Amino acid sequence: MSKLLCRILGCRSAAAFFLFYCEKLANQADELTSRGMDMHEMAIAEGILRIALDYAEQNEAKKIREIGLLIGEMSGVETEALEFSFRMIAAETMAEGAKLSIKRIPLVGRCGTCGREFHIEHYDFWCPECKDGVLTLLSGREMQVEYLEVD
Ligand SMILES: [Zn+2]
After folding, report:
1. If you measure from the C-alpha of residue 136 to the centroid of ligand 1, how many angstroms do you get, rounded to a whole number?
2. What's the gap between Cα 111 and its chain centre?
3. pLDDT tens digits, one per residue of 8-49
4. Number of folded domains in the chain?
5. Which CATH number covers residue 71?
6. Is 136 a domain residue?
């Protein structure tokens, strides 16, 4: 087994690429909603599967064992729904049975007035130091494939 670090996918442009996939697929997901599936997670699972299969093929892998994901607190992704969707669409591909290893990235903001960095909880965006409400989001909106474990 070897670990492929998805450097291409770790940068900003790749994240945008990932989101592009998700949006495109969400538009095609009418059929899924009529079957009662969650469209958001299904579209994300499709994006993850495509990226993983492309990357594994480029690296001449035979089987994908594990997929490492970085998912921000604010991305609104439900772990169980994502795992369920992924299991369903990965069947009969080389990613069948692959484990999704999900690392949650905390939602962190920096205050524009005093510069304090803080963890945003319960969508409370006010600075705890100076109570100012103008902040920059530093992390928490990620949806990225970080690595693949392959044979
Ligand atoms: Zn502040």
Report:
1. 11
2. 26
3. 333 333 344 444 444 444 444 444 444 444 568 888 899 999
4. 1
5. 3.30.2320.50
6. no
> Is 123 domain-assigned?
no
Å from CA of 120 to ligand 1 middle? 13
Indicate the pTM of the whole model: 0.71
Burial of 47 per CB tally in 10 Å (0-12, 13-18, 19+): buried
Give per-residue pLDDT as tens, 72-85: 888 878 899 999 99
Return the amino acid letter for 57: E
Query: Exposure string (b/e) for 113-125, b if CB count within 10 Å is 16 or more?
Result: eeeeebebeeeee
Rounded distance from Cα 78 to ligand 1 centre (Å):
31
At 58 the three-state DSSP class reads: helix
Q: Is residue 121 part of a domain?
A: no
What is the extent of the structural domain holding 41? Answer: 2-105+141-150
